[in-house]
Specification:
Blueprint lengths: L4 E2 L4 H7 L14 E2 L4 E6 L2 E7 L1 E6 L5 E11 L9 H6 L1 E6 L1 E6 L6 E6 L6 E10 L3 E10 L10 E3 L1 E2 L4 H6 L2 H5 L10 E8 L6 H4 L4 E3 L1
Parallel strand pairs: 4-11, 6-11, 6-15
Antiparallel strand pairs: 1-2, 1-8, 3-4, 5-6, 7-10, 8-9, 9-14, 10-11, 10-13, 11-12
């Protein structure tokens, strides 16, 4: 399950690669993207900064409102649920990245394993987005069953889109887009590291759980 990824190229290269309008002045490219923090997406023909995760309202034991939970991953087999349906139908986006990470190892001592495509320095994962009251525009990454080398790290992986399918993901019907949500069958490079999985969190991340919405 993807809860961390990175994009290691300048924004100008992203604009050129995706034939998208440049990001507005002041948009920063984060070295690593965590749930609840800003990331870069391609939406409506533009490179845009949005928060990674749809806000899910939570309440405490006494019914008091709590800070929302960023739900950053959407299962491909649950895209017709009420939580995702409207965004999947009309607000799909591309999420550019150079690698994503999975946590491996014993509880309390998990380390980062990075997965990337050896033949594509930058690739695109399927995403959806929506405007939100608490965080502004937010996006989620689509997950499918893991295949190939990725299956050695986790049972699920992001939906990686072939370049010829980028426009189809953005513009076709939900039925046609759903057909693109399949496991990636190309080569995947695995880089296991000794870097601890836990990392400093933003104030928003520290106060909210993350996850996948059924």
């Amino acid at each position: 399950m993807c809860n961390l990824y990175r994009l290691s190229v300048p924004l100008a290269e992203i604009s050129a690669l995706f034939d998208a309008a440049s990001a507005p002045t002041g948009v920063n490219l984060p070295a690593e993207t965590y749930p609840g923090s800003p990331g870069i997406v391609i939406a409506a023909g533009q490179v845009r900064s949005m928060v990674w995760g749809f806000p899910l309202a939570l309440t405490g034991k006494q019914g008091q409102p709590l800070k929302p939970k960023p739900v950053n991953n959407a299962r491909s087999d649950k895209l017709d649920s009420a939580f995702w349906r409207a965004s999947f139908a009309s607000r799909r986006c591309l999420i550019p990245l150079t690698a994503w990470a999975e946590a491996e190892g014993p509880q309390g001592a998990k380390t980062r394993t990075w997965l990337s495509l050896p033949d594509q320095p930058v690739f695109a994962c399927a995403g959806i987005w929506q405007p939100t009251a608490p965080w502004g525009d937010s996006y989620a990454m689509i997950m499918t069953d893991a295949a190939g080398a990725a299956a050695t790290c986790h049972t699920r992986m992001p939906v990686i889109l072939a370049r010829q399918d980028w426009q189809a993901w953005l513009d076709t019907s939900p039925e046609q887009a759903k057909a693109l949500c399949v496991p990636y069958r190309g080569a995947i490079a695995i880089a296991r590291t000794a870097t601890p999985w836990a990392a400093p969190r933003s104030p928003r991340q520290a106060s909210a759980r993350t996850g996948t919405r059924a």
